[in-house]
Amino acid sequence: MTQGCSLRKNIAGELIRRVLGRSRVIRTPQIVTTWIAVTSDSTAVPAPTATTVPPAPDSPGGSRDAAASGMPVVTMIGGGQLARMTHQAAIAMGQRLRVLAASADEPAAQVTPDVVFGSHTDLDDLRAAARGAHALTFDHEHVPVGHLEVLVAEGVKVLPPPTALIYAQDKLRMRRKLAELGAPVPDYVELGSTSPRESLIEFGERHHWDIVLKTVTGGYDGRGVWLIDDREQALAVLDEAPAGTALMAEEKVALRRELSAMVGRSPFGQGAVWPVVETVQRKGQCAVVIAPAPGLDTELAESAQRLALFLAGELGVVGVMAVELFETTDGGLLVNELAMRPHNSGHWSMDGAVTGQFEQHLRAVLDYPLGDTSVLAPATVMANILGAEQAPSMSMDERLHHLFARIPQAKVHLYGKGERPDRKIGHVNIVGAPGGDVDDPDYVAQLREVAERAAHWMSHGIWTDGWDVHGG
After folding, report:
1. Radius of gyration over alpha carbons of the chain, in Å?
2. Which domain holds residue 341?
3. Tens digit of each residue's pLDDT (9 = 90 or more) over 287-300
């Protein structure tokens, strides 16, 4: 049996009414902040107490830990670039971010002095990382929920809680839950263990084989996703899937573009959303983000923001969450995926918003009042620095030198990762000059050209317009 939703034009109208019926909303031109009422069935967690819990004597940092000066310690599971950039935000607020990393060369482990080396799938390693911390949060969603439930039972403040995180880990559970909540989702079907071929054939024929196959768990940046064109291709993917791999099928959406609505939510229901952004995908991964999304209907943008707030409240999310959306050709929205952590679509906020996503995530998990999400410019464009097929002979430091000489307004964020094809090794933000308009195609095109040119230079050591670093 398939599940879907026919909501297109009047997107999430009932959800919006439900939120407005129980919330106090404050609006300014660039921010929607909502305090969502906490009901008896909401997933709420206690606020941090005034007493600081010191780290265990054998924990990294020891007496030098931020807790010794009365400031909180937050543990982040995973040592990737998201943890690295969260560490930067923690420094600014006087906090200490402890990371659980697999090795010393991971991006966050290179920069934070408080590292526990271990595996995110090992319960004892998770315990060691959580010891003495005010809250435990995530750089990625791949931590076993069973381990997190044990930590919660032992008194660890896991945020977002495992009852919410499961919907970011399991696409099938997410689809079922969103459909249950009345959220707009693509039509889908589970390819279960009993009759997967029959289910796939029935679903594919109904959609004229214009479908997508996905792994139910895991997968990112295009991995674990197959765009299907015919029956033979679909059955080949099903037959060649490794034993034990759970798959699902979805309709291939007729979309205008992809969007993202980023929301932050605190333990007691304060929520704040950034402007909805446009994400540009290449080879299945995000390449460019334009904030706010150009030419987006005001009513549709507000619907997306309120939908993000609604989902964060209903799922019990604490921290930041990205709601990845399809804007359909008939003027509606469909929810694609959820990410309950800082997200690539929010990197622009580091330089283009009053409060960036990494600071907001820390504010949320520590139950601080959330920050202002107003934009600092008419538009900001982020371009990912993706590893080239062949790494340039010029060093990264020299490339950075030449970039700043030519584009001094570029805000560059490097992750300390080795270069390999299509790997995210950093990003560039270009913040638009005052007086522009995000709905002016020429203004946005110019910003995007500069951002993409800068990112290409950083990854390839070649200017896309043929500019000579020595001769101009």
Report:
1. 22
2. 255-460
3. 999 999 999 999 99
